[in-house]
Amino acid sequence: MDPGFTAEQDGIRRTLRELLHKRCGPEELRAALDTPLGHDPALWAALAEQLGLPGLALPEAYGGVGCPATDLALAAEETGRALAPSPLLATSVLAAPLILGLGTDAQRADLLPRICDGTLTAALAVPAPALATALALTGPQDGDWAGGGRAGGIQARRVQGVWRLYGEAAQVLDGHGAGALLVAAHTGGFVRSRTLLFVVAGDAAGLVRTRQTALDATRPQARVQLRDVRAELLGSEEEASGVPEALRRAGDFAAAFLACEAVGAADRVLERTVEYLGRREQFGRVIGSFQAVQHRLADVYVQIQAARSAAYYAAWAAGGPGGPAGLAAPDGGVGALALAQALEALRRAAAEGIQLHGGIGFTWEHEAHLFFKRAAGDELLFGPVHRLRAHAAEGARLFERTEVSV
To answer: What b/e sequence results for 221-259 when a residue is b if at least 16 CB atoms lie within 10 Å of its CB, and e otherwise?
Structure first.
């Protein structure tokens, strides 16, 4: 592993930070959260046109930039610093790799170029709260997480050669505004039970989408109801056995992406806290000069640097050969471990930031609470932390008893 960044990676990160600094400050962020979509379409268009961010890790044949997946994960550190609300996670990290890995040639040619140029956003819809299970982040993918033939999930039936979907998915990231939905649905009854992925157009008849109030407003979520909705199977039935593996690979990369994002957010909230403590006075001295405060900040700094190292390694591992768009599965659950460490670092940095800001840190007007909610919201969606670590340990067979013969 080469720990240094390439010139291209440095350029992407620098340009992205400059753009977000101009277009996604605290005031712009709050204004975007109050819009129906939950993000600024003009900012999303700028990210697509100036940086090609939505298609950064997609092949040039479909209009993408053709960079390794590592570059997209490292760019997430900058979006995390700004808490930039955008469809990047839902579209380019969760949905696009699945389309690339499982879709037919016609589906790729139809969807991926529009994702790359920013005109189409997509979302992955699975029954709540099964997102972490579907992505194999907190446990094996066995069980009936897609519905299992019972109420509460999403069922798929083929009627006169046409697939129809019934059911509901909550907590769908950016599901209220996505132009296309990838829906995980259960089919085959109990005899041939399996989970398939389907493509549903955002304007399909019978599709009802409602934006929900989420703990983390920077990650808008929706409740998606499918009432006899016409759908198109992603890929072919013959390749249905590859769906769990494709979801697992997407989960590995999503964990690395989220870890880098959390590190960026943690670094920013620590930076803001240090700035405040350097100018706020108490008892005739700036607060930052007190040794007890310095020790607390030093502990946060060390935790962030450790999380950054883990996130960078996970990003590097996710960009290796072997998977669609380079999304190879890291060995030993390194993505999940990096995500666990990064979420803990962000939660610690945000909590210390809120407390050390004093009274103003607890107010709605200050942005410190947004960083804390990002950590808590991501842990609810993709964690919790202890399950991320436990599943990685099981995958590495860390606690298996081995017999040693003498």
So the answer is: bbbbbbeebbbbbbbeeeebeebbebbbbbbbbbbbbbb
Two tokens at 275? 């700035």
Return the number of other C-beta atoms located less than 10 Å from residue 300's C-beta.
23
- How far apart CA 311 and CA 359 sit, in angstroms, is 33
Q: Quick one: CA dihedral 81, 79, 346, 68, positive or negative?
A: negative
Predicted TM-score (pTM) of the model is: 0.93
Give CA–CA dist 208/195, Å, rounded. Answer: 22
Decide: helix, strand or coil at residue 142.
coil
Whole-Å CA distances, 187 to 194, 205, 287: 6, 21, 61
Chain mean position to CA 203: 24
What pLDDT, in 10s, does the model give residues 262-311?
999 999 999 999 999 999 888 889 888 899 999 999 999 999 999 999 99
**Phi and psi at residue 111, in whole multiples of 5°?**
-95, -45
**Cα dihedral 186, 189, 194, 200 sign:** negative
Find out whether 49 and 103 touch, Cβ atoms under 8 Å. Answer: no
Q: What is the largest CA-CA distance in the chain?
A: 80
